[in-house]
Amino acid sequence: MRYFIFALFMACCMTSYAQQESMVGNTKLGAVYEEALMSLKAEFGEPEQESITQIKFKNVHFKGFKFDALCLNFRNNRFSEARFYMNASNKQAALHLKESLAKAFSQNQELSKDLEEDGSTFYKGGRGPLGIGHLFTIFSAPNNGRWTAQLRYGPFIF
Predict the structure, then answer these.
(1) Are 156 and 129 within 8 A, CB to CB?
(2) Predicted TM-score of the model (pTM)
């Protein structure tokens, strides 16, 4: 019986900790679409595009940075992924923006640094909303023909 109570206590603690870190701004990952949409509009204004599977914003401010675009994805009517994009003039500029993001995020959270297949670095940090895996990734990559620095939360399956 003691082991059952201890296991239940640990599960509650882990769930509570994971839920505290599973936010993108003021919106909880895993939130149902309607709830997430209201919260996102309050934080970022009116979206450029809106559908049941994806919401897009342009020119948003988040954690002290200006992002050119924000794309939020929904799976099974739940908020599952956020992608913040900073456009860059070239690959070197994108790498510099990525490092700036990583430096800022490392002030509040522990980040790990890993290597891409091409030898470039990327960072990951936080704890995923299910209590396992990382919450976000910071990396550089081309997007729609332009180099970008990206901050990605997810994707998570709820």
Answers:
(1) yes
(2) 0.85
